[in-house]
């Protein structure tokens, strides 16, 4: 099947977002404030340990300071690419345990 014109949902190859390397919650470390233009291939999965299971979230690793910065408000079509079984297996632990 060929897509003649893309619909309203972005495809992974075209999605871009501008973010700032910064602290995202009280448990995180301070970022370097670099402004970054990211795309779907830059996203990695991270997780923290909950009381019963792992909690996954999307992040990027800053190329200037190596800090992982959480990325939110990602369209569902991009999340489908980010949350595959293979990527969940490769997800890295962020050091936080809840409980």
Whole-angstrom Rg: 15 Å
Please summarize the sheet with the most strands.
Answer: 4 strands, mixed
Q: How do the strands of the widest beta sheet line up side by side? A: 5-4-3-6
Tally of separate helices: 2
User: What is the tally of beta strands?
Assistant: 6
Residue share in helix = 10-25%
Envelope shape: globular
| Overall pLDDT confidence | 90
Cα distance spanning the termini: 49 Å
What's the helix-strand series? EEEEEHHE
Strand content: 25-35%
Unreliable stretches (pLDDT < 50, length at least 5) are none
Class from helix and strand fractions:
mainly beta
Question: Secondary-structure map with pairings?
Answer:
Layout: E1 16-20, E2 35-39, E3 44-49, E4 54-61, E5 68-70, H1 76-82, H2 85-90, E6 92-97
Parallel strand pairs: 3-6
Antiparallel strand pairs: 1-2, 3-4, 4-5
């Amino acid at each position: 099947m060929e897509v003649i014109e893309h619909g309203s949902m972005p495809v992974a190859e075209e999605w871009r977002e501008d973010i700032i390397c910064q602290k995202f919650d009280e448990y995180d470390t301070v970022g370097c404030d670099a402004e970054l233009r990211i795309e779907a291939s830059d996203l990695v999965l991270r997780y923290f340990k909950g009381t019963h299971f792992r909690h996954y979230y999307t992040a990027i690793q800053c190329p200037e300071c190596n800090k992982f910065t959480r990325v939110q408000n990602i369209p569902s079509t991009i999340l489908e690419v980010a949350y595959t079984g293979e990527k969940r297996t490769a997800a890295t632990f962020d050091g936080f345990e809840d409980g």
